[in-house]
Each structure stands twice: as structure tokens, then as C-alpha cells.
Amino acid sequence: MTTTLFDLTGRLALVTGASRGIGEEVARLLADQGAHVIVSSRKQDACEKVAESIRANGGQASAFACHIGELEQIEAIYQYIQQEHGKLDILVNNAAANPYYGHIVDTDLRAFQKTVDVNIRGYFYMSSNACKLMQGNGGAIVNVASVNGVRPGDKQGIYSISKSAIIGMTKSFALECGPDNIRVNALLPGLTDTKFAGALTGNEEVLNVWLKQIPLRRYAQPSEMAGTILYLVSDASSFATGSCITVDGGYLI
Amino acid sequence: MKNLFDLSGKAAVITGGNGGIGLAIAQALVEAGCAVSIWGRNPEKTKNAEQTLRNLGGKVHAAICDVTDRDAVETAFAEAIEKFGRIDGCIANAGIGGYVMLCSSIHYTRLLYSSITV
Fold first, then answer.
1. Is residue B5 part of a domain?
2. What is the pTM of this model?
């Protein structure tokens, strides 16, 4: 017996940061569930590789590079989606930047600006463009935030601030787009084994400090984030909007 | 296709599983392949819910159980384990509500017990 609550047949999904890590796992899982996935990240060849692998497994996928820190690239990907598909059902805002690791008072303007441009402005304009395409049919957006948006990470000040903003953004979009049947939720991953978190997982001393604070005493694999995102973009969560789900091994308890 | 939500071979207890949200949870779990043990106080409502779940093809155990009664809870758990050989999850859903200002002391005690027993 199988439930159809998670079936995404006929839906079009855009996943950013999908060439590796959590984004890649999400792209593969959504395609497994029947969605046509647009695999996006900064580099076209990296997107193509994942899209091709999805197609080789019998799924539907296409590739379109987009650096979400560049507004004209955001406009270009939505123009492509409008022309090719004329609709969008699912957006997973996952691509993020974390260019600075150090004391907050020493944050230089370039790192500050890059973090804000990608994590705040990028998520915002990806969401607003998606909502315009979703109006009429409804849709689901998942913003990948972080536990650092609730409890700041040491020496990750501007990153943590941007993730707090994403949590607020999730609620604002959920509030104003709910009447259009667009659901907007956030996933707050804890420490996950990705290249992105390499500065933490690759440093034994830093890692041990983290692990002591995680009741499950381990960090997550990227695949362990995908199920929650599938839940949030599928009909299984049809009455959930504005919610923030932590998947952190108990870190925020 | 990878199925992260497949519950085949698993068994779950759902308190208050004979109506409302509890029954909807039981139905969703049955649809995902899970055996369910539904508990409720009202015999007729529980019997009807049991039939509804059986009609979906589910493996079902039903118990008349007031979760404020520790002996009844232990008996219901024992029956469920005997029937399924395992329990993988428990949805503690049974609860009672009402205006606390109007509660008699007995009602209030029941309210507290239903919150803390399971």
C-alpha cells in the first residue's frame, strides 16, 4: 500500500544550489516523486551533470545556471521558465553564501555585501518572481534557512543574521501570499556534511564543540534534509504555511 | 522510486484514534503500510473507526481505553504488542478540552491526567 500524499507528478520544481549537497539530494528526490526539476546553481556544466543523471534514472530534469546574487540572472531564469513551461509549482531556495568565518566586528564590507546579496536579496527576488508565476494555480516555496537563524553560530555573524532574515522572510511571504494558495515554509538544517559546512566538519576541534551540543551526537547527511523538503512541497503539508521546521539532531532543544 | 514515507512492516499506536484528527492520522498511516492500534473511549465510535480502517486494507487493533487509566493503557499496549509483535511509534493524540474556569475539580484532574499519562 502506498500513500499518494507525496506524489509530485506533473509539477514543475526549481531547486537552487542543486549541483551538490542538500540541493542535489532534494532535486533527485523531487524527481523521484514525479516532478520535472529545473536544476540550478552558478555553473551550467555542474547543473547539466545532475540533470543528466536524473534523466538517466528515468526522471525529468533540465539545467539552468543562475547566480542568485545577480538580479539579471534571476530575471533570466524566470524568463526561461515562463517561456518554456508557463508555470512554476515549487521553488526550493537553497543556494546560499557563507564567505566569512571570523569575529563579527571584523566583518569586511565585501563579505557583508555578498552574504546579503545572495542570502537575503537573492532569496527575496527568487521568491517574489516565483509567487508571480504561482498566482492563479498556487504553489509551494521552501526556504532553506539554518539553526543559526535562531541561535547564531560563533564567528558566523553575518551568515546567522542573513538566516534570521530568511526566517522572517518566510513568514512575510506566507502571510501575504497565503490568499493566493501559495505556501511558504522554511527548513532549518543543523550541522550537515556538505562542502558548505566544511569549515566546521573539517576542523576536529570546532566539530567536537558542535557535537557536544547535538543530542544525536552526529552531524546529518544531506539526504536527511530532503524528506522534510519533500513533505513541505507536497500535498502532505497542504495546511502548513509560515512554519519553520528544524532538522538538527536536537541542537536547538 | 525511493519511498521515504513507506511504513510497511511497522506498527503504531494512535490514542484518540477513533475520530477526528486521530482517525485521519490512522488512515494516513494505514495508507503508508503501517499496522495501527487505535484507542478510544466510545465503543461504538471505536468499532466504526476500526471498520473504516479495515476497509482500507489495514492491519488494525482497536482498544477501549481511557488514557487517564494507567491499567487500561498497559492492557491496551500489551494487546497491541501481542497482535503486531512490535510497536514502532505512538501518536499521543487523545486530549480533552473545555473552559477551565467552568471545570469541576474532577474534570480538571482528568484534564491533567490526560496530558501526562502517555
1. no
2. 0.90
